[in-house]
Amino acid sequence: MDQHAAPILDALVAYRKADRYGFTPPGHRQGRGADDRVLSVLGHEPFRDDLLATNGLDDRRSRGRYLQQAEDLMAEAVGAEIAWFSTCGSSLSVKAAMMAVAGGAEGGLLVTRDSHKSIVAGLIFSGVQPRWVTPRWDADRHISHPPSPDDVDAAWDRYPDAAGALIVSPSPYGTCADIEKIATICHDRGKPLIVDEAWGAHLPFHEDLPTWAMDAGADVCVVSVHKMGAGFEQGSVFHLQGDLVDKDRLSACADLLMTTSPNVMVYAAIDGWRRQMVQHGHELLGAALDRAGRVRDRLEAIPEVEVLDDELTGVQASHDLDRLQVLMDLSATGTSGYQAADWLREHKHVDMGMSDHRRILATLSFADDASTTDRLVDAMSAWRKAAETFDSPPEIRLPSPEEIELETVQLPRDAFFGPVEMVPAAKAPGRIAAEQITPYPPGIPAVVPGERLNEAVVDYLRTGLAAGMECPDPADPSLERFRVVA
Fold it and tell me: Could you tell me the pTM of the whole model?
């Protein structure tokens, strides 16, 4: 195939040249009806590209041909057998994969407990029984790592009837599982492996990055192009290889969840990014990795700032690390990551990828250059001086590894959709959660519907909220009350 082509972008150009006019949605009519106040912010160009995917880009008699060509080019570019584009983010893609593999299966699905909230949403929608695989836990740093192959193998021994396994790798911290060994363990049992690789869209395009899931033997891999690529928000691709997952079932599950009015601009950006990576990705990502190494050294030179690197890999930690994710431990400064992120945002207009009780994360991209990385280092240096005057951060009561792993006593779907009530926080321990509660970012639920709450997790969430943690999903944002099964 001609990897220099970009079928969807080319079709947009052809649409403009044809001077066509559609008596169809969207009703703004190429921006003619858009309010001038909207146009003053967004400009006319986005509206010129906001078309129906059918009767707009495509000939009515051959609907989807440009999209199909673009998806085939993506699959070839990354070495997958099939690729599908999604304009509803990896949240849709991973739900479709879960439903295709485990929907209707009584044995459930092996799922790592460090999964994103979109995976929990998939459990609620589908009614699939999660068979949790416990991530490895660094109790000293209070950080989880992807499960090891032995952890997955042990989970298969406990739940041999599970329909498949779902692993998150890389994590939002850039830490990666040993997918090759995990895939072998799954395949030896005749079971498929899904990898939620939302943070790994760039991995196929440079050998010094962690191994891409398809190269490591995964059956389904989901990536978010907007996270580490150059697509719009909501742009996602999911890939398939092998014969352990029915491709028609996977496509049908995606169709059940997908909008019938996909945004062509999101498709076009994915298409163009694929071409950019094929033509220039190795050079761009190589330069980005070199730049990341220099930035890490400069940040490490700031007093009492620890840039985590080798600490995140090894026998008791992760298998590999994407070093474009620059995770900094600030605990030696006596301040919290929440305090640092707030100060950087207010005083230096710099937004960080993540913050927690002791860390902040800077996600670097191939789009960064010397000016942006200098700005990061300068902002961190200024914060370090200012931090001498900070008050001590509020105490967060951190649960132990044993306490944070809640007991699952109901299907997430049954707990979420069943009769519920709100109870005061003091009475929540011992009750079954009917909502997910997700410190965000990174978006990993501390509580999943169907789990029995305990005092340690309730205290962690409430003290974390008071210290700056964001929890966007509970029914009571103040966490004065919890939504539980009646």
Answer: 0.94
